[in-house]
């Protein structure tokens, strides 16, 4: 809930408040004339950047990013310098520098998180940039009130009220382009043809019964019977001879 004080309604003036405010600002220094070391996480055109030897604004980081002799420029740097001027000596100087290479190794996917890591490690006093406030970063450092914000919107085509068969069929095909659908159908067709091509045509045919093995078995049985008979005759003949 917002509260407002009306001087006219209360029949008062702001003189007393202005007197207290003036005394407080003149006699108190929050930082006591400190020197701030401020890190710039990356290049962001118009907001924080460096220039090459020809004076062209750089959008991609190179070796010059780690060279502090080349000054940072941009809206954010100008904003902080204005704060230093209105501090009336409370902030003596500001040194703008790069993030450390050690934090790049620890956080290789985010230059902004790497810069916050430098604050947590005590390498710098503060950082300026378009930081998203995340739980991970809040555990490493405190954030000031935002002085700028961006709004993101998702824009999609207006849904149609057409419920015809052609429109419903189009929705089914909508996830992929016609070229990709053609590629999928082509892959399916080629796979089917290859499977037919490399399939043995005789694999599923019913094999006739193996009559040769049956004939061989029958022949073996006849031979054994004849052999037994021969041995029986021979045995009788031998017995007769012995007697």
List keywords for this structure.
243 residues, mainly alpha, D-Maltodextrin-Binding Protein, domain 2, 3-stranded parallel β-sheet, 8 helices, 3 strands
Distance N to C terminus: 139 Å
- Give the number of DSSP strands: 3
The CATH class of the domain at 31-138: Alpha Beta
* Helix vs. strand class: mainly alpha
Strand order of the largest sheet: 2-1-3
Largest sheet: 3 strands, parallel
Mean pLDDT: 80
Low-pLDDT windows of residues = 232-243
Radius of gyration: 46 Å
The SSE order reads HEHEHHEHHHH
User: What percent of residues are in strands?
Assistant: 5-15%
CATH architectural name of the domain at 31-138: 3-Layer(aba) Sandwich
Plain-language structure description:
With 243 residues, this protein is mainly α. The chain has a domain at 31-138: D-Maltodextrin-Binding Protein, domain 2 (3-Layer(aba) Sandwich). 44% of the residues lie in helices and 7% in strands. It is built from 8 helices and 3 strands. A 3-stranded parallel sheet has the order 2-1-3, with helices on both faces. The termini are far apart. Mean pLDDT is 80; it is low at 232-243.
């Amino acid at each position: 809930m917002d509260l407002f004080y009306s001087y006219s309604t209360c029949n008062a003036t702001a003189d007393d408040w202005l007197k207290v405010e003036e005394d407080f600002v003149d006699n108190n220094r929050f930082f006591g004339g400190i020197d701030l070391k401020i890190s710039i996480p990356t290049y962001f055109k118009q907001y924080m950047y460096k220039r090459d030897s020809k004076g062209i604004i750089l959008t991609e980081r190179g070796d010059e990013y780690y060279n502090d002799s080349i000054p940072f420029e941009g809206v954010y740097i100008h904003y902080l310098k204005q704060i230093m001027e209105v501090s009336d000596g409370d902030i003596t100087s500001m040194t703008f520098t790069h993030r450390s290479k050690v934090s790049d190794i620890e956080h290789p996917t985010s230059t902004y998180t790497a810069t916050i890591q430098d604050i947590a490690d005590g390498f710098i006093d503060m950082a300026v940039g378009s930081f998203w406030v995340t739980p991970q970063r809040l555990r490493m450092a405190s954030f000031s009130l935002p002085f700028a914000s961006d709004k993101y919107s998702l824009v999609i085509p207006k849904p149609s009220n057409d419920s015809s068969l052609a429109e419903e069929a189009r929705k089914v095909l909508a996830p992929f382009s016609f070229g990709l659908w053609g590629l999928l159908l082509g892959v399916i067709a080629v796979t089917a043809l290859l499977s037919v091509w490399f399939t043995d045509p005789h694999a599923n045919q019913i094999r006739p019964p193996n009559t040769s093995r049956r004939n061989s078995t029958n022949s073996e049985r006849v031979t054994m019977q004849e052999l037994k008979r021969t041995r029986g005759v021979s045995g009788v003949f031998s017995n007769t001879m012995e007697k």
